Every structure is written in structure tokens, then in C-alpha cells.
């Protein structure tokens, strides 16, 4: 299933900047960055559970926000890309 993960992390202090890097790293390990704070993650149920748990450990609910959009398995008909960044196929191997 394709899950779109977006986040907004308060970076007014060193702890916030550290959280931002950690949230981004968790997402980079499970998906493809499509915008600065937006990732497309093609995951199965167990990977989704792990991704969600890791993100919830890292963020601060009093200052940050996480949003998850579930596009399911028929996501190709639900995404239209326009603009400068090239579209990436989330089914391609993720090379780290």
C-alpha cells in the first residue's frame, strides 16, 4: 500500500532541528522524498506498523505534526505529477 507521509517539525531550537533530521531519516529509510517534508512510502502492513511507531517515537506532539494519507494499492490512478522534480516510481528498488 502507498502511504503519503508529511510532517511539520518545529525547528526553533537545537532539539527541534535534531527531531527534524531524525524524522526525515526514518522516512528516507522507508520511502522516497517527493517534496521537502513529504514522502511516498510503498509498504506492507508490518512495514507500516514499524514506520508509524518509529515516527511517533521521534516527533514531539506538542510542537510537531505528522499526517498520513493512505492511497492503497491502486495509487497509480490517484497521483498526478506536474513540475520540476521528476516523478519517481515507488515500486523501483530503494537504494540507500
Q: Could you tell me the radius of gyration in angstroms?
A: 14 Å
- What spatial order of strands do you see in the largest sheet? 2-3-1-4
| Percent helix | 25-40%
- Secondary-structure element order, as H and E? EHEEHE
Coarse shape: globular
How many individual β-strands? 4
The helix count comes to 2
Largest sheet: 4 strands, antiparallel
Structural class determined from secondary elements: alpha+beta
Terminal Cα span: 21 Å
Low-confidence stretches: none
Percent in strands = 25-35%
Q: Taking all residues together, what is the mean pLDDT?
A: 88
How are the secondary structure elements laid out?
Elements: E1 2-8, H1 14-30, E2 32-35, E3 38-42, H2 45-58, E4 65-72
Antiparallel strand pairs: 1-3, 1-4, 2-3
Helix pairs in contact: 1-2
Task: Give an overview of the whole structure.
The chain has 96 residues and is an alpha+beta fold. The chain is 32% helix and 25% strand. It contains 2 helices and 4 strands; from the N terminus they run E-H-E-E-H-E. Strands 2-3-1-4 form a 4-stranded antiparallel sheet, with helices on one face. The two termini are 21 Å apart. The mean pLDDT is 88.
